[in-house]
What does this fold into?
Amino acid sequence: MNKNYPKNLYGYYQTDSDSFEERVNSKKRAINYMLVAACLPLTIFPSIIPNLLVRIVAGIALLYFGFSAVFGGKNWYNKRSGGKIKELAIKKFAVPERSAVPNGPDDQKVLQLFENNDWAGLADQPEANDRPLHLYIHEDATGKTFYLQLMRYFSSSDFRGISEVKVIAEPQYSEIYQIIKSIHSTN
It folds into this structure.
C-alpha cells in the first residue's frame, strides 16, 4: 500500500499551493465579530435585560459567533478557475463491515472500481452508515472539475486516504456529471 497518498482532500489542496488557495471570507468574519460585540454586553451586564434566559441564550450565541469569527469563514479556491471548491457528497459503502481487515476483498473491489474510473459502478454500490470505507467528492463548478478520494477508518483515531486523488475536468466532467451528481451523502 502506498503511504504517500494525501491524508484527505484538504491535505491535497494544501500541498498544491500553485493550484489552490485558502481564502478567508472577510465579510462573514466581520459580521460574526459584530454579533459577538452585540452578545457580550447582554451576557456581562444583567441590568440591560434582567432575564436569565436571555443571558443564557446570549452566552451560547457569544460562544458560537466567537468560534465562527476566529475559526470559520475559510474556503478553498482553485487559483486557475477562481472557483470555490465545495463538498458535494460523502458515500459510505456498505462493505466492508466494521472491523473488517483493511485491504481485504471488499476494499479491493471498491478500490478496483475507483482505479478503473467506473463511476457508475461506484454509484451503484450499496451504502450504509457507520462503515469504514468512504468516497469523498468535492466540486469546483466554475472550473468544471471533480476531486474524488477514497478514505478509510483503520481505527477510531486513524482515518486517512487510501487512494490517489482523482481530478476529473472537462471533457470527462460533462460526460460523468449526472453519475457523480446522483451520488448523495450517506447519513
